[in-house]
């Protein structure tokens, strides 16, 4: 059960490749989550009852779709999206292919985080902006996003950490990354050294991201 340092040295190139693949998966899916999930979360907030773009049908439909995707376990979503992955990337294996499922899972997750962050804003601030004649776009750009930036940073941190966990699961179906390394060597070959190393890498990565996120959020928090 002990760690074999020679084994780690022998497999160090593969560990580096796996780590790089994990970063690719997280980077692509986080970018997609920010690009699509942020406006989706804003839409869920501003179309709710009592807000300046109140639209119950739109809010209900978007919320329903978001909830459907969030209710599907990631491992099932991973398999269900294989045809879409094949269509978009031309393959079903590798970090880029795994990023398709990761992105689909991350978008509604981050959208709900954005919506929750915006709900924490004092309604009086929004009402004051409306009272001085601010347009909806100005309210979003100059009031909502600046007021919620600390919460949004915490939300991004939570999303990244969730994506690390999901990316490890993607290794089960050939997505590559740290999870794939743990499955191939740690599980199938009963290599306890590699299993321990992969767990340590994931723990350190999560701790670094969490600390960086907390530090940034505190710097941005005006309260």
UniProtKB/TrEMBL annotation:
<dbReference type="InterPro" id="IPR051322">
    <property type="entry name" value="AA_ABC_Transporter_Permease"/>
</dbReference>
<feature type="transmembrane region" description="Helical">
    <location>
        <begin position="152"/>
        <end position="178"/>
    </location>
</feature>
<dbReference type="Pfam" id="PF00528">
    <property type="entry name" value="BPD_transp_1"/>
</dbReference>
<feature type="transmembrane region" description="Helical">
    <location>
        <begin position="58"/>
        <end position="82"/>
    </location>
</feature>
<keyword id="KW-1133">Transmembrane helix</keyword>
<keyword id="KW-0812">Transmembrane</keyword>
<feature type="transmembrane region" description="Helical">
    <location>
        <begin position="20"/>
        <end position="46"/>
    </location>
</feature>
<dbReference type="GO" id="GO:0005886">
    <property type="term" value="C:plasma membrane"/>
</dbReference>
<feature type="domain" description="ABC transmembrane type-1">
    <location>
        <begin position="19"/>
        <end position="209"/>
    </location>
</feature>
<dbReference type="InterPro" id="IPR000515">
    <property type="entry name" value="MetI-like"/>
</dbReference>
<keyword id="KW-0813">Transport</keyword>
<feature type="transmembrane region" description="Helical">
    <location>
        <begin position="88"/>
        <end position="111"/>
    </location>
</feature>
<comment type="similarity">
    <text>Belongs to the binding-protein-dependent transport system permease family. CysTW subfamily.</text>
</comment>
<protein>
    <submittedName>
        <fullName>ABC transporter permease</fullName>
    </submittedName>
</protein>
<keyword id="KW-0472">Membrane</keyword>
<dbReference type="InterPro" id="IPR035906">
    <property type="entry name" value="MetI-like_sf"/>
</dbReference>
<feature type="transmembrane region" description="Helical">
    <location>
        <begin position="190"/>
        <end position="209"/>
    </location>
</feature>
<dbReference type="GO" id="GO:0048473">
    <property type="term" value="P:D-methionine transmembrane transport"/>
</dbReference>
<keyword id="KW-1003">Cell membrane</keyword>
């Amino acid at each position: 059960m002990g760690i074999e340092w020679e084994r780690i040295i022998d497999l160090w190139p593969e560990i580096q490749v796996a780590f790089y693949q994990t970063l690719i998966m997280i980077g692509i899916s986080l970018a997609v989550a920010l690009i699509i999930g942020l406006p989706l979360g804003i839409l869920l907030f501003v179309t709710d009852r009592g807000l300046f773009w109140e639209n119950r049908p739109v809010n209900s439909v978007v919320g329903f779709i978001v909830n459907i995707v969030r209710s599907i376990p990631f491992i099932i979503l991973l398999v269900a999206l294989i045809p879409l992955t094949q269509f978009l990337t031309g393959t079903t294996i590798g970090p880029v292919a795994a990023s398709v499922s990761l992105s689909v899972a991350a978008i509604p997750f981050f959208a709900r985080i954005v919506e929750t962050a915006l709900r924490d804003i004092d309604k009086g601030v929004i009402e004051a902006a409306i009272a001085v004649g601010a347009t909806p776009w100005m309210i979003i750009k100059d009031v909502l996003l600046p007021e919620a930036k600390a919460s949004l940073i915490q939300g991004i941190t939570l999303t990244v950490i969730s994506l690390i966990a999901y990316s490890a699961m993607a290794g089960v179906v050939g997505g590559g990354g740290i999870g794939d390394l743990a499955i191939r060597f740690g599980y199938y070959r009963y290599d306890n050294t590699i299993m321990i190393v992969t767990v340590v890498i994931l723990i350190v990565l999560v701790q670094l991201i969490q600390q960086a996120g907390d530090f940034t959020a505190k710097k941005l928090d005006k309260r």
